[in-house]
Design a protein that fits this description.
The protein is flat, with a radius of gyration of 31 Å. It has a five-stranded antiparallel beta sheet. Strands 5-4-11 form a three-stranded antiparallel beta sheet. Helix 4 packs across helix 6 and helix 8 runs antiparallel to helix 9. The chain is built from 14 helices and 16 strands. A hairpin with a 4-residue loop joins strand 4 and strand 5. The chain has a domain of 60 residues. The chain is α+β, with helices and mostly antiparallel strands.
């Protein structure tokens, strides 16, 4: 068979662009993203059941949304601590040196770094960004943050990047460390003309490829290199989070990976039940020996004149009905167990439960969330360090302003808590000298403990000692 050859002059037009080549190389991952997103949106049937019910009971979306709510639904907090030099304690074990005084420069740097984090969080509605990234991770299997300096707004920003436009290479011996990132997106024709002065097809727009390494930054728009130079930040400003790690892979697994088949089975069996109910409520009529039956009126009190040898009857169920409901219950149980989302999480425990009993019933969902928190904590610490690096690179703060500081992520309780009990518990720990006021305020959700403590001391200086929950007067 002869091969079809194209003239050499057509090669530039036939060769895929870098944008297209990257998408083709990672086509299987992008296809999985597309399939999981479609399933989350309720597109469950591969082919429609012609003439039959096509019910969609979207447990997949509910399971994902509940998992996202448990992970980041109550927001996150930040704390920054100075990494003090280690000293040797009893039995030769290394311990952290004691905290410095009020004028300790390390404490002042930590306070400034923490204030910057909350300024960035307020400036870009970071709770909303976290919610979007958590949803991307649960549905697609991956989430990506980008940290950059917005010159127009003059602030450090954090945004959620579509994982379908994120293409990365990493160290072969360390799948966490990024070596090269390509970020793909599309500009409209007006945006391409305004930003870069390049014409673009009004229908398809302009394909953009941002390429990042620790040393270089390159931007290609519609096949034209518009920027190629050193990386302005000195680091790759992306953070990738794998939802459920796949052994030996950089990319994560979607929460829907094991849910799709079970949810499809539920859709079909619920549809079968609906068909049975519909056929019993309005059963088909079987005509035998009647030629012109299309014009016959069907309804109460209707009289038909049919030939002597004709037969008319309703189509009825013959034999033992299938145990559809038992099968549905078994599939539902398998769905709850596979998704680690117990029935109680859907608000139907069937009985009143104490706090401990409720936590026990929700243990599978809590354990799944705790696994995710381990990975998210590491990623959010990396994001914090990127915020500091970008702030230093653009001159927002002097270089090395935040060197040696340790960020800490404060996760809220997943279960309903008794606020009064938590306050009393922290008061007792502070009174016993087992916990600092600052740590107690962090755990109780105070955004800036240092500023709040200053206000407390100012009030004490003005009003005098007040009675505390421990029953002892406060001396400030």
């Amino acid at each position: 068979m002869a091969l079809l050859r194209f003239p050499a002059r057509l090669a530039p037009w036939l060769a895929p662009s870098r944008y297209q080549a990257l998408r083709q190389q990672d086509g299987s991952r992008l296809l999985a993203y597309q399939q999981h997103l479609a399933f989350y949106e309720g597109q469950h049937y591969l082919t429609p059941r012609r003439g039959r019910s096509n019910l969609v009971v979207n447990y997949a979306r509910t399971i994902v949304d509940k998992g996202v709510a448990f992970l980041v639904g109550r927001g996150l907090g930040f704390a920054v601590e100075p990494a003090r030099p280690r000293t040797t304690g009893a039995r030769g074990l290394p311990v952290l040196a004691t905290a410095g005084g009020a004028d300790d420069p390390d404490d002042a740097r930590a306070q400034a770094a923490e204030a910057l984090l909350y300024d960035v969080a307020d400036g870009c509605d970071l709770d909303v960004v976290d919610l979007q990234c958590a949803l991307n991770a649960a549905v697609l299997g991956d989430a990506v943050y980008k940290v950059f300096w917005d010159a127009a707004r003059r602030q450090v920003r954090v945004v959620a990047v579509d994982p379908a436009g994120f293409f990365a290479t990493w160290r072969p011996d360390d799948v966490i460390t990024l070596e090269h990132v390509d970020c793909l997106y599309t500009l409209t024709a007006d945006q391409a003309l305004t930003l870069y002065g390049l014409p673009a097809d009004p229908c398809t727009g302009a394909e953009v490829v941002e390429s990042w390494t620790a040393a270089e930054y390159r931007v290609e728009v519609a096949g034209h290199v518009v920027q190629n130079g050193p990386n302005p930040y000195g680091v790759i400003p992306f953070v990738h989070i794998a939802n459920e790690p796949v052994p030996g892979s950089f990319w994560g697994r979607s929460d829907l990976a094991d849910v799709v088949a079970l949810n499809r089975e539920l859709d079909e069996r619920f549809s079968d039940q609906a068909d049975v109910i519909r056929f019993h409520a309005d059963p088909p009529i079987v005509f035998r020996g009647v030629e012109d039956h299309d014009s016959l009126t069907v309804g109460p009190g209707t009289v038909w004149d049919v030939p002597r040898d004709a037969d008319v009857k309703l189509l009825e169920w013959q034999g033992q009905p299938a145990a559809v409901q038992d099968h549905i219950n078994q599939v539902l149980r398998a769905l709850y167990e596979t998704a680690e989302t117990p029935r109680t999480a859907f608000g139907d425990s069937g009985r009143l439960l104490s706090g401990v009993a409720l936590e026990t019933e929700l243990r599978p969902l809590i354990q799944k969330t705790l696994r995710k928190r381990v990975r998210w904590t590491a990623a959010l610490r990396q994001r914090t360090r990127l915020i500091w690096a970008v702030a230093e690179a653009v001159g927002l703060v002097p270089p090395q302003s935040y060197a040696g500081l340790r960020p800490r992520i404060i996760w809220p309780s997943m279960m309903p808590t008794d606020d009064a009990f938590e306050v009393r518990n922290n008061v007792q720990l502070v009174a016993a000298g087992l916990r600092s006021r600052r740590t107690a305020m962090d755990l109780l959700g105070t955004e800036s403990p240092e500023a709040e403590l200053q206000r407390v001391h100012a009030e004490l200086a003005t009003l005098g000692p007040v009675q505390t929950l421990s029953g002892m007067p406060s001396d400030g």
